[in-house]
Amino acid sequence: MRRSPYFPYLLLAVAVLFWAGNWVIARALRFDAPPVALAFWRWLTALIILSPFAYTHLRRQWQLIAGSWRVLCLLGLLATVFQHIPVYIGLSQTTATNSALLNSVTPVLIFMLSHVLVGERLSIPQALGVIISLSGVVVILTGGDPMVLATLQLNRGDLWVLLATLAWAIYTVCLRWRPAELNQLAMLWVISAAGVCAMVPLYAWEIASGRTLNPTMPVVAAIAYIGAFSTVVAYVFWNRAVQQVGPSRAGPFMYLMLVYTPLLAIVFLGERLYLYHLVGCVLILGGIALTARGDARSASVEGPPAA
């Protein structure tokens, strides 16, 4: 099976399925696992699983890690604290379907931030694509009702998800400053460690405020899943497949999130799809296609957008 030319594509499809599962599980746990607790235990689980595999690389490259600690800590905060905590707050207040659709605007945000932060120029088709995609976001935020904007009655959960998506877009742009020689497993371990350390005071504050994890067997099993499969296994599958087929072929597989997440949410959470979901999805994907078409350069895919 591993020798099959289709095996890397299977890895990509499975990786995205694991990430979609994270969104649905987080929505299901909203009454039993507060956002910081869920993020903390997810990344602590990943850190424990990664440690024996990353140890050799960490020992060999510790000087490189020490010399790049500032950028690695920044990446760790963006990928964990500023991305997953807002995601889990958002999923406690909005549907998994809404979240997945809003998350799909990540590529457009990356184009915009590359222009603002590192001076990359946007062509006319790219700028038009940004406008179209953002209009799709507005459709989803307002539920297809423009009067919602007039009364400013937006779903706070959707806004939290957009904040998390913005954090991941910033993370992706900042990846250009990471040490290129650093092993991927070592980098993921450092990111996990930085995130766990940063979340300790936030977790203590959450507990002190009376919001505690309900450690039932389903909750523990769910956290083990997102720590092991949605974090470690999915990341390894994705990176291995990208190495074999290239980022340009791997990238479109991320849009399976728009298929997996609503289907899983319908089956396991009883959510429903509405016309405004479809309209917003078409606008977002159309805008992304236009921005990508206007970019002749290929970009490497480092990981999942807001997974």
Topology:
Blueprint: H1 7-28, H2 35-60, H3 62-67, H4 69-79, H5 81-91, H6 96-103, H7 106-118, H8 124-142, H9 147-151, H10 156-174, H11 184-208, H12 217-245, H13 247-250, H14 257-269, H15 275-293
Helix pairs in contact: 1-12, 1-14, 2-5, 2-11, 2-12, 4-5, 4-10, 4-11, 5-10, 6-10, 6-14, 7-8, 7-10, 8-15
Summarize the structure.
The chain has 307 residues and is mainly α. The protein is built from 15 helices and no strands. α2 packs antiparallel against α5 and α8 runs antiparallel to α15.
Q: Secondary-structure element order, as H and E?
A: HHHHHHHHHHHHHHH
Number of strands: 0
The helix content is over 70%
Mean pLDDT: 85
Describe the sheet with the most strands.
none
Q: Uncertain segments of ≥5 residues (pLDDT<50)?
A: 296-305
Radius of gyration: 19 Å
Through-space gap between termini? 27 Å
Strand coverage percent: under 5%
| Count of discrete structural domains | 1
Describe this structure in words.
This protein is an all-alpha fold. It has one domain. Helix content is 75%, strand content 0%. The protein contains 15 helices and no strands. α1 packs antiparallel against α12, α6 runs antiparallel to α14 and α7 packs across α10. The longest helix has 29 residues. The protein is globular. The two termini are 27 Å apart.
List keywords for this structure.
single chain, 307 residues, mainly alpha, 15 helices, globular, disordered C terminus
